[in-house]
Amino acid sequence: MTNDTKLPNEIRVVMDNGIPAVVVTCSADGSPNATIISHVHYVDESHIALSFQFFNKTIRNVRENPHACVSLNDLRTNTQWILDVQYDHSEAEGPIFDEMDMRIEAIASASGMAGIFKLRAADVYRVKSFKSLNKAAFNR
Amino acid sequence: MTGRESDNDLAEQLARRSAEVEVLRRIALDINATLDLDPIYDVVLRTMDECFGFRHSIILLLEDSNTLRVVASHGYQDQALGGTVEVGIGVIGMVAKRRRLMRVNHLRAQQAYFDRIRSQMQEAGRANELGEVMAVPGLADADSQIAIPLMIKEKLIGVFSVESREPEPFSQHDETLVTIVASQAASAIQNALLYRAGEERRLELAEAHERLKELNETLEERVRTRTRELELVNRDLRETQAQLVRSSTMASLGTLAAGIAHELNTPMGAIHSNADVERRAVGLIRGIVRDPSVASKLGPQPRLERTLKILDEINQITLEAAERVTKIVQSLRSFARLDQPELEWVDLHEGIESTLTLMEHLVKDRVQVVKNFGDLPKVKCFASQINQVFANLLTNAVQAIDGAGTMTITTNQEEAGVVIRVADTGSGIRPEHLERIFDPGFTTKGVGVGTGLGLSITYRIIENHQGSIGVASEPGRGTTFSLRLPITSTR
């Protein structure tokens, strides 16, 4: 199933389920990179936000090439969601930033990693399309 | 879903919401009906469990700007009471810091992600970058949590938190319910805290009032006691000052006496020697004149005989005067005893005699001195100090006698000490003055005559020698001072 822009409401639970997501980016010269992130933040039905904590390859890539792919796993239904997204802008303040920052800092502070997990910005992506794959059906 | 099923569903939802509104109304009534904190906590936490299914809940109040303390809890094995959370640490601490509600589902999975990163950093030798893992009160294996700040206007007073072991039991609707209850609870808790603070203040004021009343009642007595203490301190100070002055004076006098004695000894030796030569020369002249061979030639010489007789008499007067000067010099040295500043065995009669010698100009023919000296052993004391006592007592006795009178000095041994009594036939001391005569500065001699320090110093010297001094007086008949000294003073 595919959809161009509007994310369904049930995907919010998947984003919130604590299962790390995979983000795949590609540099300007075409080199791909896959990385795991702890949380995908639901902004609205056509936007998500990813945390920008470390200046890593993912960040470098999307600044060069804004297209990215996000994979989310729903273990309850054994469903994988794949989102095609495009980097839109970064927010270093405001409600989206505050909410993501608060969540990261709350857990990091109790884990003794407050200084390590420090949100630099919330990178907002526009959802170009998405699809969900039922793994059980796929594996049969 | 058919239209009938849809209607039933809506009816159920409506009934549920109505029930919730009723519960919220009841909570509001119950917690605002009391000003005691414990019933408020109990209503809030119990109702959250019984009516909304929130099994584990906790209320923390802000203890200081950086610490929250658990004041009530429900559904925990150890109840977590008294536990603390640092502002900014964990979900509860972050809610307090940001003053915003936080709903976290799948908490364990998120913590697991952080734990994994932590392990990877440790394995990579970056453990020094990691801080301490902080334990926070609550369920150790909570998987979801709603924490909400308890606010009064803009001021944070605490945090209310509910937890669950389920990964996502809390919905947006639950969040709304918790927010409403927390808002009600914050007002009720604040009212109760204000009431309690007011009560504590009232009790403090009542206690302060009682203390003040008690202080007022005892103030006069305290002032009297303090005045007595100050008087004693003042007396000690004056005595010490007087003793210092007198010691300094005595030391100067002693030095002066020693100097005078040394300077007088040489001319006195010359006078003594010359008088002796003169006496022998007169004898020689008289022998020559009376020799028969010379006498037959000179004939009777009555003028020469008279002249020699006068020379004899003058010579005798010179010798007696020289002996008296020598005696005075010895008395001065004995009185001051500068050469013996330590405790020593002293013949008290010698001290009395020396003092009397120095007082002869006061006594003259006016006062008859009667000495009833007993058999006294030597006494271990500071001789110069005891001589000072004798000088004070004897001078007072002589000065008390207006015109002619008698001063009687009696000494004897009693038990382990000696007693010296100095009695005079003077004017006596009035009864109202008797109690004060040993006070420093007290005198009846008039301005410029007495300093009022003599008897005070006497008292202190005798006290230092572990002795005692008493006085008996009859106005118009005379006064007797009785001095007791142990033979061996330990001081």
What is the CATH C-level name of the largest domain in chain B?
Answer: Alpha Beta
Mean pLDDT metric of chain A: 85
Strand adjacency order, main sheet of chain B:
3-2-1-6-5-4
Largest sheet properties of chain B: 6 strands, antiparallel
If you had to describe this structure to a student in words, what would you say it looks like?
The complex is a heterodimer of chains A (140) and B (491). With 140 residues, chain A is of the alpha+beta class. Chain A contains 4 helices and 8 strands, in the order βαββββαββαβα. Chain A has helices at residues 11-15, 57-64, 95-110, 135-139, and strands at residues 2-3, 21-26, 32-37, 40-44, 47-52, 67-74, 79-91, 121-134. In chain A, strands 1, 2, 3, 4, 5, 6, 7 and 8 form an 8-stranded antiparallel beta sheet that branches. Chain A starts with a strand and ends with a helix. In chain A, 36% of the residues are buried. Chain B is α+β, with helices and mostly antiparallel strands and 491 residues long. Chain B has 2 domains: 3-200, GAF domain (Beta-Lactamase, 2-Layer Sandwich), CATH 3.30.450.40; 343-491, Heat Shock Protein 90, CATH 3.30.565.10. In chain B, 57% of the residues lie in helices and 18% in strands. Chain B has helices at 3-32, 37-52, 90-98, 107-123, 172-290, 292-298, 302-336, 348-358, 360-363, 383-400, 431-434, 454-464, and strands at residues 56-64, 67-74, 84-86, 102-104, 144-152, 155-164, 344-346, 367-373, 379-381, 405-414, 417-424, 468-474, 478-486. In chain B, the strands form 3 sheets. Chain B has a 6-stranded antiparallel beta sheet, with helices on both faces. In chain B, strands 8-10-11-13-12 form a 5-stranded mixed beta sheet, with helices on one face. In chain B, α2 packs antiparallel against α5. The mean pLDDT of chain B is 83. Classes of the chains: A alpha+beta (140), B alpha+beta (491).
